[in-house]
Amino acid sequence: MSSLTPPRAQLPFLLMRAQSAVSERINDRISRRGHPTLRPIHGLVFTRISQAGASINDIAAFIGVTKQSAAAIVDALESDGYVTRRTDPDDRRARLIELTERGRAVTRLATAAAAAEADALADAMGDGVLAEVLDALRVLADMPSHPQT
Questions:
Q1: pTM for the complete prediction?
Q2: Which residues form the HTH marR-type domain (predicted)?
Q3: What's the CATH number for 30-115?
Q4: Pick from 32, 23, 18, 24: which is nearest to 109 by CA?
């Protein structure tokens, strides 16, 4: 993107680049601590199942993929020992995906990695810019996800 691109046109691309860069730095911290197979999408799965577990359908809806893709992601996490499946006590036909102790440990590690990244970002921006960025991000986060055209 050139410096001639209008600021409004740059915004979505810069937001996507920033999100990708932050995710990759957090993922790199996790990888260097012994979890090289994990990717940012796995963190979304961990977030969804961390409290009470979830079904494949719930995970698929949360991370925005098909049920088949969610099942493949969960299969990989299960073979690496991060999650387990158990029968849903409310519906014996359904299975819940839950974190194992290894999954809970990497979730704690990811939380620490995200905090370290937040500190690095805040230090790079300084307090004034940080406050402005946080205000702007809150506005963006509160916008409807399906804009009316």
A1: 0.81
A2: 8-145
A3: 1.10.10.10
A4: 32
